[in-house]
């Protein structure tokens, strides 16, 4: 299968036109999935495309409908939803149609376009998740000011995600590696199989800078957040322990789903590049591809619908106010002898106009009259 993919991909990338199409048809029956296999893949792609489209469309509708959701940090979630939605609109329908017919349907140019747009949008999603995790880390640790009206920094983060992704996915269009048929020939992606120095160098760079690096940023950022929140365990309150458990669950879920969606695809690509010929079969190559595409369904569930704060914001809608997200802050004047943490739900109901005012305290003290809890906690134990 690998040797076949080498010949197919190289022919497509060389601009083989009709000869490439004939070569693909000639090898189709030998290297493709069975009709039932293509049907299973088509069903999976139909499910992923439909629910990915619905989930991300609902996210965008919520952000358009409720003004209170349009905070700078939430704009990163919108960026992720846009990239995932575009995958469902510009990519998945073509691989779905190809799977129903058992062959690629829109020619060489369509294959190159499909490979580029799916790789580009997939990397946008990965980099955006890393930027989101780092922004959350900086906000909570007090490295940046959580200003609910300042969109400049988040706009820079969003622009960085898209430009960075473009930088790493455009080169195959100009000769550094190439885009071509993948797996059973019903999808297209980077040419994982060619063993040339040109191709291998690109795959190594793509793997490091677009998969490993975002994962390291996510693990570091959420790991530090979790470390800060676990310090609350010394405060023997049900609220702090419940919150710690919820944050732990969210962090573990985010990391596990990231690995589940993208690690198999990365491993498959490396095996196709460096493994022995025939190691990755057509069936084995399509499974990681489906897992990667499933991120368009999973991302909205994890980052939006599992977010209790967002759901409360939607319910509270017009009777809300902007508050800082969970944030570790230093007292005014730079005095580091006392470190406090504000735990408050973003956009709390404002019927009492309760504010959590940070002030130097020696003991655990609740400093809000909001109907939903918020606490100022002395993290240094007083003194």
Automatic annotation (TrEMBL):
It comes from the Eukaryota. The keyword Chloroplast does not apply. The chain crosses the membrane at residues 39-63, 75-100, 112-134, 154-174, 200-226, 247-267, 279-305. It is found in: Membrane. Residues 55-303 form the G-protein coupled receptors family 1 profile domain. Its main location: membrane. One of its GO terms (molecular function) is G protein-coupled receptor activity. GO terms for cellular component: membrane. One of its GO terms (biological process) is visual perception. SUPFAM superfamilies: Family A G protein-coupled receptor-like. Keywords: Chromophore, Disulfide bond, G-protein coupled receptor, Glycoprotein, Membrane, Photoreceptor protein, Receptor, Retinal protein, Sensory transduction, Transducer, Transmembrane, Transmembrane helix. The keyword Mitochondrion does not apply. It is a multi-pass membrane protein. Belongs to the G-protein coupled receptor 1 family. This is Teleost multiple tissue opsin b. The lineage of its organism: Eukaryota, Metazoa, Chordata, Craniata, Vertebrata.
């Amino acid at each position: 299968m690998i040797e076949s993919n080498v010949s197919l991909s190289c022919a497509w990338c060389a601009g083989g036109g009709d000869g490439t199409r004939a070569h693909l048809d000639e090898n189709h029956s030998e290297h493709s999935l069975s009709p039932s296999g293509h049907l299973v893949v088509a069903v999976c792609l139909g499910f992923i495309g439909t629910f990915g489209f619905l989930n991300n469309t609902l996210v965008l509708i919520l952000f358009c409908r409720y003004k209170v959701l349009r905070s700078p940090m939430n704009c990163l979630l919108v960026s992720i939803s846009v990239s995932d939605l575009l995958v469902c609109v510009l990519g998945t329908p073509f691989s779905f149609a190809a799977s129903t017919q058992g062959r690629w349907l829109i020619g060489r140019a369509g294959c190159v376009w499909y490979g580029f747009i799916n790789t580009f949008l997939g990397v946008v999603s990965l980099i955006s998740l890393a930027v989101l995790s780092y922004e959350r880390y900086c906000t909570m640790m007090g490295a940046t000011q959580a200003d609910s009206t300042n969109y400049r920094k988040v706009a820079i983060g969003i622009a960085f995600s898209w430009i960075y992704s473009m930088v790493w996915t455009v080169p195959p269009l100009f000769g550094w590696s190439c885009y071509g048929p993948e797996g059973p020939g019903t999808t297209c992606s980077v040419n994982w199989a060619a063993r040339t120095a040109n191709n291998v160098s690109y795959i190594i760079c793509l793997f490091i800078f677009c998969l490993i690096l975002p994962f390291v940023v996510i693990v570091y950022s959420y790991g530090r957040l979790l470390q800060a929140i676990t310090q609350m365990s010394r405060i023997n309150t049900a609220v702090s322990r419940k919150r710690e458990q919820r944050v732990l669950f969210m962090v573990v879920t985010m990391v596990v789903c990231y690995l589940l969606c993208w690690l198999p695809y990365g491993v498959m690509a490396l095996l196709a590049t460096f493994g022995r010929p025939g190691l990755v079969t057509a069936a084995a190559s399509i499974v990681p591809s489906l897992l990667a595409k499933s991120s368009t369904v999973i991302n909205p569930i994890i980052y939006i619908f599992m977010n209790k704060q967002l759901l409360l914001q939607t319910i509270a809608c017009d009777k809300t106010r902007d508050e800082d997200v969970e944030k570790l802050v230093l007292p005014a004047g730079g005095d580091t002898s006392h470190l406090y943490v504000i735990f408050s739900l973003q956009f709390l109901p404002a019927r009492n106009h309760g504010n959590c005012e940070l002030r130097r305290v020696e003991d655990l003290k609740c400093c809000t009259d909001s109907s939903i809890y918020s606490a100022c906690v002395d993290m240094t134990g007083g003194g």
